[in-house]
Amino acid sequence: MTSVSPPDTILQFNDVSLGYGDFTVLSGISIQALKGQVVALMGGSGSGKTTLLRAATAQIVAQKGRVTAFGQDIAQLTGESLRQLRQRMGVLFQQGALFTDLNVFENVAFPLREHTRISEAQIQDRVLEKLDAVGLEAAAHLRISEISGGMARRVALARAIVLEPELILYDEPFAGLDPISLGITARLIRDLTDKLKCASVLITHDVKESFAIADQVYMVGQGKLIAEGTPAELSASTDPFVRQFLDAQPDGPIAFHYPVTPAYTKWLEQRSRRRS
Ligand SMILES: Nc1ncnc2c1ncn2[C@@H]1O[C@H](COP(=O)(O)OP(=O)(O)OP(=O)(O)O)[C@@H](O)[C@H]1O
Predict the structure, then answer these.
(1) Is the CB of residue 98 less than 8 Å from the CB of residue 107?
(2) Residue ranges of the ABC transporter domain (predicted)?
């Protein structure tokens, strides 16, 4: 299948299947993120959101179809070219583990020291600018043990953007935040996307916050892409899956039970045989 990408396409999945070994988690996935867009990838627990993130960062290779970042087919990249590609991406993991033996400033400076040869004065300017963007310039001198969990998330965000990535991937950015921090984080993601003119892709199940800032939303479930559109389009949807998800209804097409797989059946048979 061929497709024409708009010139500002940063990330594109073209009829992609993803999984582990011979287990396919998702198939027929076609999504894209354009420069300047906030894109939310949503779905229930175990629907494959993290798997999508792994595919975008080339940690796993598509079983079928093509994943393109910055116009390059990521399955074709190895070694130095893959390293260069990843340098254009900032990834913010849920546990954005900070170095506890370094202060806030040095945590944010770390990628600059690792990947660039810029001067100490330039490092200071860049780090303080990014800390300012997340509201923490005056916390630069603090030790990690002296800051709150919410502040630590923002320091991790400053570190993820310090190399000025063209694509920022967020893994559950709203998980475990109080209602005020939720709103602040969502606003920050939108503002940073506009300011850095990058693309931001969030994997999340938080409807309210992501709908408030996203340009485009993709929903995955039942092993495929279930719905896509702007937050307004999805809010108006009458699709039972979309409604169950948006209205947080316990009953509907989204199954509570993890599906029975051949691997489970085999495991159970072996176990039963051992016991008899
Ligand atoms: N490394 C792995 N090896 C084999 N199967 C995996 C692996 N990682 C995830 N899976 C399976 O892939 C499916 C999707 O998992 P994934 O972590 O992508 O879901 P998710 O949508 O991010 O879930 P959650 O919201 O609960 O974190 C699950 O069935 C999971 O068991």
Answers:
(1) yes
(2) 11-247
Q: How many helices (H) and strands (E) does the chain have?
A: 10, 10
Q: What tokens does 37 get?
A: 């867009």
pLDDT value, residue 203: 93
Query: Model confidence over 97-128: pLDDT tens digits?
Result: 899 999 999 999 999 999 889 999 999 999 99
157 burial (CB, 10 Å; 0-12 / 13-18 / 19+) is buried
Domains assigned to the chain: 9-88+165-275 (3.40.50.300)
pLDDT of residue 28: 96
What is the Cα–Cα distance from 80 to 153, expressed in whole angstroms? 30
Residue 169: per-residue pLDDT = 94
pLDDT value of residue 264:
83
**Atom of ligand 1 at shortest distance to CA of 220?**
21
Q: Which amino acid is at 11?
A: L
Distance 8 CA to ligand 1 centre (A): 30
Measure 146 CA to ligand 1 centroid, in angstroms. Answer: 34
Residue 238 near ligand 1, beta carbon < 6 Å: no
- The DSSP annotation for 234-267 comes to HHT---HHHHHHHTT-SSSSS-SSPPP-HHHHHH
From the CB of 214, is ligand 1 less than 6 Å away?
Answer: no
Counting as low any pLDDT under 50, the low residues of the chain are: 1-2
Rounded-to-integer distance, Cα 61 and Cα 43, Å: 21
**What order of strands is seen across the sheet that includes strand 89-92?**
89-92, 167-171, 199-204, 38-43, 216-221, 224-229
